[in-house]
């Protein structure tokens, strides 16, 4: 697998799709491996050149000691896109990945569009993660093994009934998470970066076209954050997935993919800039 190097840290990434396709880079959420984008990658790689980095601390990337920052992970993303050799790309980020996408588009000039899923601009007006959810995401049930801990922590991110209705898929997700998600120390370092994130004063400077997608029943990042983003971004389109949970890009992947494809088709890259 190819890697980019920034300040001695190796950032792994994967490239798929046609070599002449417009680049679309997918940025992961807190602790998640690039498996989380498999539903979008499968569809968009038919037409687009998809780039999937592992955030530092995750998957096949190095896991240096913290602290991590969103600015640092945006710099990692710049190193990846420079290594791939693209001049311009569509940037898609979910949750923490959406925070990285915002900072990346503010600090660097390769982002032609940004798609922000289940994320927040941070700052005092943002709706925080509910206290009950925070506790659930950090707890380890007494006597629980690794698989049980993953299921317990992930439950607020999915809809009621998802586990019962999709037992085989849930087992596969647990397998993927065990294989490539961040271990406890780098996960905590990423969580600290999310806690410190605040682009609320700068997000109005983002002039690139933006797509804001969010589930109305998100129990991790409340949907009010999507509305706040859409208000402040100068060129934003907002679409809410009725009943969608935090991981709506998994549960409602067809809905998400349709809107991503439509948005990307409306904003093609300039010829020769891919």
TrEMBL record:
InterPro entries per record: AB_hydrolase, AB_hydrolase_1, AB_hydrolase_fold
Ranges for domain AB hydrolase-1: 23-252
Entry protein name: Pimeloyl-ACP methyl ester carboxylesterase
Upper taxonomic lineage: Archaea, Methanobacteriati, Methanobacteriota, Stenosarchaea group, Halobacteria
């Amino acid at each position: 697998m190819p890697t980019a190097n920034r300040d001695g840290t190796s950032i792994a990434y994967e490239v798929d799709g046609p070599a002449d396709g417009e680049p679309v880079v997918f940025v992961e959420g807190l602790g998640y491996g690039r498996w989380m984008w498999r539903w979008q990658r499968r569809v968009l790689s038919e037409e687009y050149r998809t780039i999937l980095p592992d955030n530092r601390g995750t998957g096949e990337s190095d896991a240096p000691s913290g602290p991590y920052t969103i600015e640092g992970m945006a710099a990692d993303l710049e190193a990846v896109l420079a290594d791939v050799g693209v001049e311009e790309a569509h940037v898609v980020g979910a949750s923490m990945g959406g925070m990285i996408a915002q900072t990346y588009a503010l600090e660097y000039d390769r982002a032609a569009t940004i798609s922000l899923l289940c994320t927040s601009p941070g700052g005092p007006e943002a709706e925080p993660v509910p206290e009950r959810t925070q506790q659930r995401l950090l707890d380890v049930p007494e006597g629980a093994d690794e698989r049980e801990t993953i299921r317990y922590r992930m439950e607020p991110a999915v809809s009621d009934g998802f586990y019962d209705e999709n037992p085989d898929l849930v087992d596969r997700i647990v397998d993927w998470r065990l294989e490539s998600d961040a271990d406890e120390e780098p996960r905590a370092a990423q969580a600290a970066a999310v806690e410190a994130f605040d682009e609320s004063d700068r997000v109005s400077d983002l002039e690139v076209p933006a797509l804001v997608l969010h589930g109305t029943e998100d129990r991790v990042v409340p949907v009010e954050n999507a509305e706040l983003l859409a208000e402040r971004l100068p060129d934003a389109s907002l679409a809410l997935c009725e009943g969608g949970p935090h991981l709506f890009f998994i549960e409602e992947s067809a809905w998400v993919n349709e809107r991503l494809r439509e948005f990307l088709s409306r904003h093609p890259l300039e010829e020769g800039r891919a």
